[in-house]
Amino acid sequence: MHPIIIFSKMDFSQSNLFGYIEDLQELTIIERPVRRSLKTPEEIERLTVDEELSDIERAVYLLSSGQDIQGTSVVANLPVLMRQSPAETLRRVLPKIREVLHVAGVEMQLTAAVSFLTVLQEELVSIHTYSHSFLHIILQNLEHRDAGVSNAWLETLLAVIEALPKETIRHEILNPLVSKAQLSQSLQSRLVSCKIMGKLASKFEAHIIKRDILPLVKSLCQDVEYEVRTFMCRQLEHIAQGIGTELTKTVVLPELVELARDEGSSVRLAAFETLVNLLDMLDADDRSQTVLPLVKSFCEKSFKADESILVSLSFHLGKLCNGLYGIFTPEQHLRFFEFYKKLSTLGLQQENGHNDNQLQLQNLEQEKKYILVRKNCAYNFPAMIVFVDPKNFHLELYSIFFCLCHDPEVPVRYTMALSFYEVAKLLNSGVYTIHKELVTLLQDESLEVLDALVGHLPEILELMTNAGENSGSENKLLSIPDLITALTTAEQRAATSLKWRTHEKLLQKYACLPHIISSDQIYYRFLHRMLTIILTNNVLPVQKAAARTLCVYLRYNRKQEQRHEVIQKLIEQLGQGKSYWNRLRFLDTCEFIMELFSKSFFCKYFFLPVLELTHDPVANVRMKLCYLLPKVKSTLKIPTDKHLLQQLELCIRKLLCQEKDKDVLTIVKKTVLELDRMEISVDAFQKRFYENDLLDQEKERQEHLLLEMVYLMSTICPFFSSKEDKKSKLVRSQSFSTQALHPKYSTLDKCPNSATGYTSSGMGKNCMLSFTGK
């Protein structure tokens, strides 16, 4: 076969053409086996079923004489049959399934386990019928030779145990379990017994567990196979919860201590993790005399002879340190803290070509283990702040925090980004000390890190702002220039990536910025960027996120000339834009305007530009406008907006008479019916509109208050100092704390520190914009 050569420029000369034809002929050979794999007429005949058969008869036929794939289809359809004909399914189909499962393949077995579980969860039969008809089939298949099949049936059984009455469990499951757990039984049988006993511990009283289950537990803890000891060890937590603290201390704890010294590393690991999970059930004496020595032993061996426990130890260290906090001596407290410090830089600190514990990274697996250890240290960092005390953060933990935020591996920095909000909450008024690390993570080269940080970005920024105000304005002001640069850099990096969901999320969270930085900073660094994104980005969710955030910025802008400029740009560049896509985004923006601003604001600036789009040459724009018209009409108040209502009615009449697109016309007719049913609110309050009117009145009051404040500041107190300006901003924010926002952007509700807006009444009349039609 000739190799297929890729040319930078294809040569179709006669000498080369035959070579290409040969290659194409050889490629057709590849298709021949595919054609041979098609079903022959005989095979199709065997797969064909009489269409006149009922669902039950068809199921029985396919299970009796069909192929495996057909039988599997019947088993998957069992819940449907149970809903349609439960009695007939139990009488005719289920026995056939039981018979077929003896020789069924893995796929049918897994499908049956899922179907049986679905029948239970959807309660398609009573629990008595289920235990009589289905339970025996489940128990028969528990010890399937395939481990995956066995686990699937086991998961189904564990779910069934939750619903079964105690007597059924005792006779059908517990009594046979005594023989199944014996050493003479197969390994798979003993492993299954371990998990079942862990589940049974929650179903019976302590004295029954002590009499019937604990002897089996002890036997399995001493099993000759390490897999069984490991399985049983992990079930001891459930056993302990079932028997209570007293029996746990006398029965379970000694078994755990012995298993913690087992020769099998997986057994020791299971014992350690179970001990950590049982800390809450142990008293101070047990913790100090039993658990603490074992933990110290694990810590010592983790770097020497037992590295298998190192990852688990690093993961549980925060829980351990805080669980044992009350029994630590100052020396032990320091020792465990030093151990955490050592783990947090494991594999990083170098001295003369060697790290602290003189270990070289021998292979990739060890390097991955060390990365996972540092990641776990990042996960436990908030717990270590509690352990050390937030007051000692700067002295004891800041260096570790710095290292973890600058770790060379993405998973470590990603985990720190996820934990950053918890760290900020714990530091409280001292949170401003970590603003440099916030800037670092915002500018991280990995978008995964940025995505993790952005989730709680509004809350983090609010904490930092409040801490700056409480501890002195200098700290806050010093952090802002770096912060703004980091925020703009983060947005630009997200915009140039292919991860548009991260970009969308970032833009949504940036809606909190009016509560963090000044109106001018937002105007010059963020607001115009949002408009650019709406105009140039190709991803609709990103454009909508930018549009809403822009509307929030407009809502909180404090300068009339800036607001007017933005409004004018929205109308000219979006509403009257050359691209129909921009005009569609204008309608999206108007929806956000109606949500965030008062009715009078929308009517003053956007009502007529929206109606202009009834003449749009693109059907999709007119169609979207028709869907929006009911919301547009709801912004009107009579008699104040009577002339706008007349304009709306005129536009609708034109659409009805002149619209040529049949799809748009259909929507216009539906919209007309909806508009006819709508009632328009009047200037005076009405009971049926009371809540909406009250909310709108509050928005209008806020907009009016903003104008008054801006006017006073510009005419009476132009020489306000920055500190006084902040105080006035805080006073104003208290009157804006009742704003209503969309739940998707609820972060704004958590930052009621400042607000701005605009109004159409009183002193704002001389600012009205003029609109020219297209």
Automatic annotation (TrEMBL):
CC terms in the record's Gene Ontology section: cytosol; protein serine/threonine phosphatase complex
InterPro entries: ARM-like, ARM-type_fold, HEAT_type_2, PPP4R4
Places the protein is found: Cytoplasm
Keywords for this protein: Coiled coil, Cytoplasm, Phosphoprotein, Repeat
HEAT repeat boundaries on the chain: 213-250, 252-290
Molecular-function annotations in GO: protein phosphatase regulator activity
Source domain of life: Eukaryota
Assembly behavior: Serine/threonine-protein phosphatase 4 (PP4) occurs in different assemblies of the catalytic and one or more regulatory subunits. Component of the PP4 complex PPP4C-PPP4R4.
Described purpose of this protein according to its UniProt entry: Putative regulatory subunit of serine/threonine-protein phosphatase 4.
Protein name: Serine/threonine-protein phosphatase 4 regulatory subunit 4
